[in-house]
Amino acid sequence: MFKDHPKGLISAAFANMGERFGFYTMMAILVLFLQAKFGLSGADAGVIYSVFYFSIYILAFVGGIIADKTQNFKGTILAGIIVMSLGYFMIAIPTPTPVPAESYQMYLIMTCIGLFTIAFGNGLFKGNLQALIGQMYDNEKYSSKRDSGFSLFYMFINVGAIFAPVMAITVRNWWLNTNGFAYNADLPALCHQHLNGTITPEATGNLTRLAAEVSGGQTIELTAFADQYLGVFVTGFHYAFATAIVAMAISLVIYIKNKNTFPNPAVKAVAKEGETLVEMDIKEVRQRMYALFAVFAVVIFFWFSFHQNGLTLTFFAKEYTDLNLFGMNISAELFQSLNPFFVVFLTPVIMAVFAWQRARGTEPSTPKKIAIGMGIAASAYIVMAIGSYFANLPLHADIVAAGTSPVKVTPMLLMLTYLILTVAELYISPLGISFVSKVAPPKYQGIMQGGWLAATAIGNQLLFIGAILYETVPIWLTWTVFVVACSISMITMLCMLKWLERVAK
Asked: What's the whole-model pTM score?
């Protein structure tokens, strides 16, 4: 599989696995952690979630500037691993839950500082490592393998991401079981409603029933149960964050061991003896930059839709999905393992399709592949919209009043959606990174990789709109908004196709 690719590719992928592990740990449990610990609504948790994901990607642009200015790409990447680890340590420390009213703001601010620290470390790390990978394929020996190389890199780093949600669930549920409880997705919200005095009589009945179920049939006082269950549930989440520190430590060792064998984007263009370096014409630089900025603007809408997998799709898994699968009671967070699982197992399939098309002379250009990916993403949300509409799902306000949804859909709906979204991702994310590494002028490699991530950041900043829609309009209409966003992206990309293909030659 790695034949005819640079030797440093697999080492760089291993070094990136810790970042992916932490990323998917956060994606799987962050909004559920915020709701369980602080009793936040979906919209409020969505704002923090979207700001965090905005920060992760916008700070990659800052990290690119730092690396380009200092010309110390490897040192910047190393600093990023260390800073990310510090951030995970900050949020892994258990603090009181339910949070005392007098220290509520302090603990919420401490959590946000920890999240910002993770985001800043990621910014130093992510884009600059991608620039390093791009340089490996500037060698004419490997240049024809650039797209497949980034696809392999993308696939391999997601191996660790498969296990992140599973590990987070395992740790959280282990802590619940250790303290004599079982997992139930509806209980944290019901506990907060009871403690805040906002619970309805119908929801009180559901809380009483579920409390007995997760406590082994014991009869207990509801206030004491709510306090204890929330404390144990959230402490399990804190311990789950700690697993990311272990993954980051492994990545740190791998990176340090292989650091000296990686290329350095700071010396991307070096003249051979007797040759004269030719500066890229300013007009060509501008054309390349314009093309990159145009693609950045388009993919904003894709990321706005795609990264709902950690927000509204996670809410949907918790509230509207039957978590009994083949006789097993599964956790809502487990659906977050589907995306990296599909990335790993579908990447060879997608690469085989591209190779077959290449052999027939019909392989789409990289910009066209990105446009196709936008259309595939739209189809994923069409599936969600149709499934939600015909299931006649209640409004979110109705399930808050009852404490649980009276109608729950098969988990197969989310599984199919994640499958289609992953195919779309494989047409867009690794190939977009490849496109940037190919088109970006040599002296702007780090900044332009950061620019790709900055576009992702803007899309992520818009995520909270999905959380607001989720709580205020019929659920099928929420998914329809993402269908429209992805369709607009596809059409716009197709309109620019000839120009982008000309610039990329």
From this structure: 0.84
